[in-house]
Design goal:
Blueprint: H1 2-5, E1 28-29, E2 34-35, E3 40-41, E4 47-48, E5 63-65, E6 68-70, H2 81-89, E7 99-103, H3 108-118, E8 125-129, E9 135-139, E10 147-151, H4 158-174, E11 179-184, H5 203-214, E12 218-222, E13 237-240, H6 243-251, E14 260-264, H7 270-279, E15 285-294, E16 297-304, E17 311-319, H8 323-334, E18 339-347, H9 353-357, E19 364-368, E20 382-385, H10 388-399
Parallel strand pairs: 7-10, 10-11, 11-12, 12-13, 14-15, 14-17, 17-18, 18-19, 19-20
Antiparallel strand pairs: 1-2, 3-4, 5-6, 8-9, 15-16
Length: 409
């Protein structure tokens, strides 16, 4: 896949990045004569995937309701490139009689897209909050003997969403579910993963214990902030990466490999950026050296690598307040970078992230929908990609006791 993602410099008629005029290959399969438009522009020209209710059998052309675009949700016939071969080689049976999907309230749109890809209906569940804030969960259908998947990221408000997930797990366990998998696209407590000078709790381990004790048998998470967080769980963890989704989108832009440099915004993200660069035809790597003086505070110190005249693609797992990535982008421009792109999986977007990201230092900010982006956080340079197909395929493989890693090979 690495060789096909980026056009070689010798075959590119222009070194300038251009936005693909046709639908992204993320949800296009030309070999079957299918072409599903996957991107749309709202009134502020923000590229987003539909956040309204949609059905699998909608026509390919986009429609508008209340001034917002509705894009057909991808079905199982329209796959990202990295999933096509995996689907063709799959041998297990997709028996959904004993598979149940339930969605929490944190990201119901993503849950609906996952269910649509899998050809299933979301399970019926009632979630309420009492006047004092207590959470009430009741299953509206039987899960006895079923393989249950609960989709709930711990995005803001993190504590409420985490508590809701725990109560959902407990409800399924008490209803005699055979297996319970917590699908957490964004695991928010993975940042507090180490103890310094004996004064900080390891919150990731605490949350891992809570999820396990609540009754979960397995965890499915996307791009954990710290890979060692998997070791805090006493249950199996399937850790999937969303890089292929972003890479598939970048491939549609016709980037010249000779103009590209991948940048890690800090030393801790070098491994992530190196893996990303390897898939982009072994693009050169640069590192922003910074020193952090406190939480959400960063100071850029130096740049390791050459970005002069290049198109710099900054890669990180999340954007919170955007302090680190914004200061890194400013340094790249000072060092002569022609354009700067930001790519991340989790769009946390705590204030003042939107102001920093929309200030003009980024050509484009590419994120996924593991976290729902509020309307107030849209800005013209923002692109949101869906990970529904990838998570849906992973859930099928977990349910069928098949390999998950082969999806990405």
């Amino acid at each position: 896949m690495a060789a096909s993602l980026i056009q070689p410099a010798s075959h590119s008629s222009s070194s300038t990045m251009t936005f693909a005029s046709s639908a992204s290959s993320l949800f296009t399969r030309s070999s079957r004569g299918l072409s599903l438009q996957s991107l749309a522009f709202d009134e502020s020209h923000t590229r987003i995937f539909a956040r309204n209710n949609a059905k699998c059998d909608q026509p390919g052309s986009s429609k508008c309701v209340n001034g917002k675009p509705i894009i057909p949700i991808p079905n199982e016939l329209t796959l990202p490139k990295f999933l096509e071969s995996a689907r063709m080689e799959k041998t297990f049976n997709k028996n959904s009689d004993r598979l149940k999907l339930f969605s929490g309230t944190a990201n119901s749109t993503l849950s609906q897209e996952i269910a649509c890809y899998m050809g299933l209906e979301l399970g019926k569940i009632t979630t309420k909050r009492f006047a004092d804030g207590e959470i009430y969960v009741q299953l509206q259908e039987s899960v006895r003997g079923c393989d249950v998947f609960l989709i709930q990221p711990t995005c803001p408000p993190a504590n409420e969403n985490l508590m809701e997930l725990l109560i959902m797990i407990d409800a399924c366990r008490r209803a005699s579910a055979k297996n319970i998998t917590a699908v957490i696209p964004y695991f928010g407590y993975a940042r507090a993963d180490r103890k310094t000078q004996g004064r900080e709790s390891i919150a990731a381990k605490l949350v891992a214990n809570l999820i396990t004790k609540a009754g979960a048998d397995r965890l499915l998470a996307c791009d954990l902030h710290s890979g060692q967080s998997m070791g805090y769980f006493d249950i199996p963890v399937d850790h999937v990466h969303c890089q292929p989704v972003i890479l598939d989108y970048l491939a549609s832009k016709g980037i010249s490999s000779g103009d590209l440099v991948v940048v890690s915004p800090d030393v801790g993200g070098v491994a992530r950026a190196r893996a990303f660069a390897k898939k982009l035809s072994d693009a050169p790597l640069a590192i922003v050296d910074k020193r952090r003086h406190g939480h959400n505070l960063a100071e850029v110190m130096n740049l390791i690598g050459d970005v002069k005249g290049k198109v710099a693609v900054m890669v990180d797992d999340m954007i919170d307040t955007a302090g680190t990535i914004a200061k890194g982008a400013a340094l790249l421009h000072e060092e002569g970078a022609r354009e700067v792109y930001a790519c991340c999986t989790h769009a946390v977007f705590s204030p003042p992230a939107v102001e920093r990201l929309s200030s003009g230092i980024f050509q484009e900010v590419i994120v996924t929908n593991t976290i729902p982006v509020a309307d107030k956080n849209y800005f013209p340079q923002l692109t949101i990609l869906s990970v529904a197909n990838m998570l849906g395929e992973t859930i099928w493989r977990i349910h069928g006791d098949s390999s998950v890693s082969t999806i990405f090979q």
